[in-house]
Write a sequence for this structure.
């Protein structure tokens, strides 16, 4: 297990969020976290990114507790695409993507040719190369999200955390970016941990699913064993019909109107 | 439009050079203008030769330049520079292009402190009003930070909304306090009112050095963290995940920005709009990168405030308090910029 959480408890003052959460994430796979609104998904991602520390328990990266790693060290290991992709200052798309190289550039030096090449690659693969001189404040929501996603790719970390990173994107771009993630997981042994809202998309692309509800882990494992009618009913409080779909080559859930 | 970072940097260097030269020329020009006009030639001679001036007219010019105009001009330029740097810091940290050096209530705190000093009849000692103003500004700053601290925010504990709201509340309370002090001040009320409107008249070399030291240290700290500030404008989680130590950087820059504003207010009274307007104008030239924005705002702020002060000192029939002039000129310009940015 590359990233592991052991018996995590977390609460905001007077408001417990996570209870005894234990889970693990292997390298070279896509892991998707599913759960209803307010179930603690974002808190879980924040803990994995080292943005907050658990009240109890430990998050370990290859057996090293996250809390012992410096901010810069963490930034070279873990990239985060957070829910908030709004940028209020008129940086160019290229500038924003290039900021992904920040953890590798000394305080007073400029980006190297390699840094710039990596930014160009990230923009090309996410399909924002043609708007690289545009100001981010002038982009649509989906374009902004692709820009922030490209920044995380440019950060070139073994771990990529995504918190609803596709929420404003159309299906074409969502699939395209998921394909990029799948390739970097398979070929570069990267670990992708994503919070998604579309459970069918999750069932199609994930190697493992983690179901959480009210801050507790309900189930974790490959979609074949976790993506069941009972689990979905228990977590989301809806009644689905789950069946294997030949075309998507995965289990899919269907709902009555 | 090309945004090649190297080109922008070279571009920024050229801009900084051009603006520095212009600031130098403005200082010389301002030195020559006033109640007595001094020819530029004389000024250059006095500045370069210093002590070996013989004839009596030059002696008079020397006194005017070194004892009256130069301290005032330099204080004014440094205050303009410090307010603008402070404005850049606040707009960056608070993720709000409409923030300014007084957003956290620093000006109200300083004004309250100064009013108390005036009310206690301490104004005979030249240090007491700035000292009280500075203490008031610092006390306000720390109270506002204390008020907006929330344990719920993982990365930094301070949200820009909380800071802005706390600043507004505290400033509102303090301005009621100032009104009360004015109410009980009787004949001192005019002193308070004049102090609040801001002025650079009768500034001394001690003022110059004080602002210069704050400006230098503040600027060095700001430029040290300029790249982190760029990342902070992406949002707190993104910045933290890219390796920025948010808690430290935010608090250090907030305190730097506030102390810059506090020293300015303590020495020259409340001068509005410079800290709000200058970063906006400069951003249209350099873009939002703080590494170019900070030096350029510093120079532009110095130039603009110097010209405003020169106009009120040398050209207007009566000297208008500088705070009124900056608000009267800066306000409409800001409206124009604001409307223009809404249109595109």
């Amino acid at each position: 297990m590359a990233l592991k959480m052991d018996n995590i408890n977390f609460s905001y003052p007077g408001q417990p969020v996570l209870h005894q959460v234990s889970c693990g994430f292997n390298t070279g796979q896509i892991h998707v976290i599913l759960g209803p609104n307010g179930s603690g998904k974002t808190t879980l991602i924040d803990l994995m990114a080292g943005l907050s520390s658990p009240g109890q328990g430990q998050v370990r990266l290859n057996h090293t507790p996250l809390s012992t790693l410096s901010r810069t060290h963490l930034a070279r290991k873990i990239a985060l695409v957070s829910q908030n992709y709004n940028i209020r200052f008129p940086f160019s798309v290229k500038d924003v993507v290039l900021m992904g190289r920040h953890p590798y550039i000394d305080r007073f030096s400029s980006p190297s040719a390699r840094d710039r090449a990596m930014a160009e690659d990230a923009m090309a693969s996410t399909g924002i190369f043609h708007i690289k001189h545009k100001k981010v404040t002038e982009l649509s929501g989906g374009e902004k999200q692709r820009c922030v996603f490209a920044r995380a790719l440019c950060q070139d970390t073994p771990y990529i955390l995504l918190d609803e990173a596709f929420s404003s994107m159309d299906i074409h771009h969502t699939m395209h970016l998921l394909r990029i993630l799948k390739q970097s997981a398979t070929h570069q042994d990267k670990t992708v941990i994503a919070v998604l809202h579309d459970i069918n998309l999750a069932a199609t692309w994930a190697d493992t699913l983690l179901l959480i509800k009210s801050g507790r882990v309900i189930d974790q494992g490959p979609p074949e064993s976790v993506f069941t009618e009972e689990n979905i009913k228990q977590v989301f409080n809806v009644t689905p019909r789950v069946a294997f779909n030949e075309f998507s080559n995965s289990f899919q859930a269907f709902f009555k109107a | 439009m090309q945004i090649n970072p190297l080109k922008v940097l070279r571009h920024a260097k050229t801009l900084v050079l051009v603006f520095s030269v212009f600031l130098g020329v403005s200082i010389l020009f301002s030195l020559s203008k006033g109640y007595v006009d001094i020819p530029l030639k004389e000024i250059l001679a006095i500045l370069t030769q210093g002590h070996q001036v013989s004839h009596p007219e030059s002696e008079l010019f020397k006194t005017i330049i070194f004892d009256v105009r130069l301290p005032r001009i330099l204080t004014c330029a440094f205050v303009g520079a410090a307010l603008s740097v402070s404005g850049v810091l606040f707009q960056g940290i608070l993720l709000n292009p409409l923030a300014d050096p007084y957003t956290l209530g620093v000006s109200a705190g300083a004004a309250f402190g100064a009013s108390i000093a005036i009310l206690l009849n301490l104004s005979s000692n030249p240090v007491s009003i700035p000292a009280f103003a500075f203490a008031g500004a610092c006390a306000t700053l720390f109270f506002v930070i204390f008020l907006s601290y929330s344990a719920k925010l993982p990365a930094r504990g301070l949200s820009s909304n909380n800071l802005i709201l706390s600043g507004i509340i505290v400033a509102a309370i303090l301005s009621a306090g100032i009104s009360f002090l004015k109410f009980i001040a009787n004949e001192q009320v005019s002193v308070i009112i004049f102090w609040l409107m801001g002025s650079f008249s009768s500034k001394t070399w001690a003022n110059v050095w004080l602002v210069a030291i704050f400006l230098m240290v503040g600027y060095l700290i700001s430029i040290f963290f300029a790249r982190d500030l760029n990342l902070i404008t992406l949002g707190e989680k993104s910045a933290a995940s890219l390796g920025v130590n948010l808690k430290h950087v935010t608090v250090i820059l907030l305190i730097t920005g506030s102390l810059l504003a506090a020293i300015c207010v303590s020495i020259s009274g409340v001068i509005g709009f410079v800290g709000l307007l200058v970063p906006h104008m400069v951003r249209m030239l350099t873009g939002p990168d703080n590494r170019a924005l900070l030096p350029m705002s510093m120079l532009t702020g110095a130039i603009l405030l110097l010209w405003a002060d020169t106009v009120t000192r040398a050209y207007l029939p009566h000297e208008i308090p500088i705070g009124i002039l900056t608000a009267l000129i800066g306000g409409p310009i800001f409206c124009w910029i604001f409307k223009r940015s809404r249109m595109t």
Remarks:
- Residues 217 and 322 of chain B are 26 Å apart (CA to CA).
- The radius of gyration of chain B is 21 Å.
- Chain B touches chain A at residues 1-3, 5-6, 9, 92, 95-97, 151-152, 154-155, 224, 227, 230-231, 233-235, 237-238, 240-245, 283, 287-289 (CB under 8 Å).
